[in-house]
């Protein structure tokens, strides 16, 4: 019997999951993709509005007008290149068009339920035909007409993560005229003539500070938090799933994807400091190999021990607890391990080499590193 899979979110990770499910018709029925908005693209679908829509639903996109921080040569899904005529550093509109083209090319759109929110995802223990205990998932959704529906799936991919801004509690915050999170930042013009402090120096912090700051020291009017996002899954019961969901950490997740107690619930794209689309592609292919039986999973206790040892290794190396999901240099070995286990092609060495070169350029030339253009010459070379 074909497995039924639900996918929560039609951003890059959700589209990737749906695409690979559709290429395995011998094992999986066509997916059902739940998307709360009316478009594909997730955070790449730019929305100038902030806060909430007229229907009361929150604006989930965190995209600001001029965001691009990775070249298309390393950003692309491994087997679906961007238009080679485009510059390396793209506008969000071009990335959105790329995802729409990906969606059309792999005929994903007919399987997406737009304007449909997932309200509840619950595990149900059943007995399989061979008499063994089996976990299925009841997924309750609500569409834009107010119609609620509950369906049963064999697996659920969670592909929607970064929309709940993390705002730390800082003494004196009330002294700023304006306080906002980068989630609500769209462009620089509203801050003209004001003195802005940006807290946070990862991707968003660097981008926004370059757009706004002149390096001077002064009393400030505006505080912008570029402090990341909380993991928030109101449709899940973490305790029932054996999960602990804190501000920046979801644990335990075997291979950064699967709760050991419920490995058919799969989180795609939860890792940080990664090359996103290639990482999603590797995770999805590994997860589907687990679901179709190509990759055997260890017992629950062993998976929990693997996660515990990995966290311990990071903590002993000085990684702070709230950074446990950051892969950074570990991402390459991680993706290679997934590829080796599931038998799909690993990421090309040139992708890693170019990714690392761009990060070096970003440290040295934060204001103009995006002026360079690159080209992948072979699996091992770029220019």
Automatic annotation (TrEMBL):
<comment type="similarity">
    <text>Belongs to the FMO family.</text>
</comment>
<keyword id="KW-0285">Flavoprotein</keyword>
<dbReference type="InterPro" id="IPR000960">
    <property type="entry name" value="Flavin_mOase"/>
</dbReference>
<dbReference type="GO" id="GO:0050661">
    <property type="term" value="F:NADP binding"/>
</dbReference>
<keyword id="KW-0521">NADP</keyword>
<dbReference type="GO" id="GO:0050660">
    <property type="term" value="F:flavin adenine dinucleotide binding"/>
</dbReference>
<dbReference type="GO" id="GO:0004499">
    <property type="term" value="F:N,N-dimethylaniline monooxygenase activity"/>
</dbReference>
<dbReference type="InterPro" id="IPR036188">
    <property type="entry name" value="FAD/NAD-bd_sf"/>
</dbReference>
<keyword id="KW-0503">Monooxygenase</keyword>
<keyword id="KW-0560">Oxidoreductase</keyword>
<keyword id="KW-0274">FAD</keyword>
<dbReference type="Pfam" id="PF00743">
    <property type="entry name" value="FMO-like"/>
</dbReference>
<protein>
    <recommendedName>
        <fullName>Flavin-containing monooxygenase</fullName>
        <ecNumber>1.-.-.-</ecNumber>
    </recommendedName>
</protein>
<dbReference type="InterPro" id="IPR050346">
    <property type="entry name" value="FMO-like"/>
</dbReference>
<dbReference type="InterPro" id="IPR020946">
    <property type="entry name" value="Flavin_mOase-like"/>
</dbReference>
């Amino acid at each position: 019997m074909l497995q039924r899979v639900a996918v929560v979110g039609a951003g890059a990770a959700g589209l990737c999951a749906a695409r690979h499910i559709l290429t395995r018709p011998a094992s999986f029925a066509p997916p059902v993709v739940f998307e709360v908005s009316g478009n594909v693209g997730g955070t790449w679908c730019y929305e100038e509005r902030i806060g909430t829509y007229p229907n009361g639903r929150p604006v989930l996109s965190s995209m600001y007008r001029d965001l691009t921080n990775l070249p298309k040569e390393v950003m692309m899904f491994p087997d679906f290149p961007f238009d080679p005529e485009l510059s390396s550093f793209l506008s969000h509109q071009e990335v959105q068009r790329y995802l729409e083209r990906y969606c059309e090319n792999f005929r994903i759109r007919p399987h997406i339920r737009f304007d449909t929110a997932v309200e509840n995802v619950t595990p149900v223990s059943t007995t399989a035909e061979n008499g063994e205990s089996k976990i299925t998932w009841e997924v309750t959704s609500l569409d834009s007409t107010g119609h609620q529906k509950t369906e049963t799936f064999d697996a659920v991919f969670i592909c929607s993560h970064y929309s709940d801004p993390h705002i730390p509690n800082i003494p004196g915050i009330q002294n700023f005229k304006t306080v906002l999170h980068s989630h609500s930042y769209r462009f620089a013009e509203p801050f003209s003539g004001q003195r802005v402090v940006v807290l946070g120096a990862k991707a968003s912090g660097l981008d926004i500070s370059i757009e706004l700051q002149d390096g001077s020291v002064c009393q400030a009017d505006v505080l912008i938090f570029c402090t990341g996002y909380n993991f928030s899954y109101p449709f899940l019961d973490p305790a029932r799933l054996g999960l602990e969901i804190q501000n920046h950490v979801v644990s335990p997740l075997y291979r950064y994807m699967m709760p050991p107690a419920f490995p058919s619930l799969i989180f795609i794209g939860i890792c940080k400091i990664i090359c996103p689309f290639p990482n999603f592609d590797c995770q999805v292919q590994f997860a589907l190999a687990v679901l179709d039986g190509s990759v055997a999973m260890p017992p629950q206790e062993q998976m929990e021990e693997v996660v515990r040892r990995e966290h311990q290794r990071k903590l002993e190396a000085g990684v702070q607890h709230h950074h446990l999901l950051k892969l950074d240099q570990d991402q390459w070995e991680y993706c290679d391990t997934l590829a080796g286990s599931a038998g799909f092609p690993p990421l090309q060495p040139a992708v890693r080499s170019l990714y690392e070169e761009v990060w070096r350029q970003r440290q040295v030339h934060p204001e103009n590193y995006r002026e360079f253009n690159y080209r992948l010459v072979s699996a091992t070379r770029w220019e």
